[in-house]
Amino acid sequence: MRVALLPLLIILWLSGCNQQQPSGIRFGVQQLPFNFDPRQATDAASERVNHLLYQGLVRFDESRRPQPDLATWERPAPRRYRFTLIGDPRFDDGSPVTMRDVVATYRTILDPAANSPHRSTLAVIREMHLVNERTLDFLLDRSDPYFPSYLSSGVLPARLIGSSHDFNSKPVGSGPFRLLSREAGKLLLERKSDGLPVSLLLVREPSVRVLKLLRSEIDLLQNDLPPSLVDYLERQSGVEVEAAPGSNYTYLGFNLEDPLTGDLRIRRAIAHAIDRDAIIEHVFRGRARKAAGLFPPEHPLGMDVRHAVAFDPQKSMALLREAGYGPGNPLELTWKTSSDPFRLRLATIMQQQLAEVGIRVRIKSYDFGTFFGDIKGGNFQLYSLTWVGLKTPDSFRYIFHSDSIPPGGANRGRYRSARTDALIESAESESDSDDQLPLYRLLQRELLQDLPYVPLWYEDQFAAYRPEAIDGYTPGRDGSYDTLIELEQRGK
């Protein structure tokens, strides 16, 4: 839908607007969660909602530093961490949260038979020692200064873990919200502190989401709009738009088991053919930053943008010739992406850039569930996606270590490198974070050489809302929904 047509469509739609509004906050989203079980969930929508339904031992602040959530901690020895519960946390049914629940939750994540994608991150745990109902010791295989950061997974009640209870359909947590109902296209949450209803309404089409906001059919939307629609909203009365620099990492991923994308020369040719600066300037309208690695430059583990792969079409064509491709024998590849119009547009632009160096790309777009299933299953040559909420160096093991190939982690490209594995393990073996940093920087330079991913950009975060309905909304840098925890409703 062309943005130029929006004013006419809005006039036609608003003419039938019913002014009586339901209570609660209505949040228009592009994607609803796939899994309410935090031990299994990996998609961004599930992670965001599960963070409202469950509490972990730790949470993260806006600077990506771990903070106490269910518990405080101390480190009495290099390989021992002691966690102590705070206050009187309760599950949805009113039963108390104890450290027995924590032990039961992490035992199932660590159980190989459970196939939890988060198992590799927690493999450092050698033993959990229950001191009492409120105190738990973690004994580690090695010293790890980042260990508390790994314990943000939602805690489930032990009495249900051993039963046939399906947490995916009936979540039971101790978070600030509970799930009231789940139906096609809608989730209804209730904020425990005051009973405020929050509806997450599925509206896949970006322009329709904008129209619903302007027609007062939703009160809030966050991200998942092309820059042209963000510009349009900024000019509208009765709507506020808030933005913040983002930390979520968008990348181009490869299947390293494919004979074509498994060829380093081809991966490098693709990386040098993509003009990220032009896309950020003209497509994002400056609302993104070029990436050189998983973490943005301001993060302690961040890579300076000067390390990013350079746009160099001549080098790209030389690498293709070296690999045996040219005008008489063009390289042909398939690129998978979601059916979101803006993601499809970005893929089409990069398809054209690749065509200019002699790479023919066929784009296949799918609804997100089908697309994400193919990526997890390794059914692709190349794809584009965004990592959401990366905060700690365990991400390197989770994404790039040979032991993290699904279902054991998120090494979806089946990347195997003895040198990368050794660098990850060497960094993890250091007991001080200052000693780890040089190894992680060396690791990231190795990843830029091997290119299991092509780093693309970090997109700005934004939210648009109706100030007559809610008292402000601040988007998190990682796109979380945490502002809903304190958000105040107006006029109802």
* End-to-end distance: 33 Å
Tell me the strand percentage band: 15-25%
Here the CATH topology of the largest domain equals: Dipeptide-binding Protein, domain 3
| Corresponding CATH superfamily of the largest domain | Dipeptide-binding Protein, Domain 3
Radius of gyration over alpha carbons?
23 Å
- What's the pLDDT, averaged over the residues? 91
Please provide the count of β strands: 19
Sequence stretches where pLDDT stays below 50 over 5 or more residues: 1-22
Q: What is the CATH C-level name of the largest domain?
A: Alpha Beta
The main sheet orders its strands as 8-9-10-1-11-19-12
Task: Supply the number of structural domains.
Answer: 3
Largest sheet: 7 strands, mixed
Total number of helical segments?
A: 14
Which CATH architecture of the largest domain is right? Answer: Roll
Please supply descriptive tags for the structure shown above.
492 residues, alpha+beta, D-Maltodextrin-Binding Protein, domain 2, Dipeptide-binding Protein, domain 1, Dipeptide-binding Protein, domain 3, seven-stranded mixed sheet, six-stranded mixed sheet, 14 helices, 19 strands, 28% helix, globular, disordered N terminus
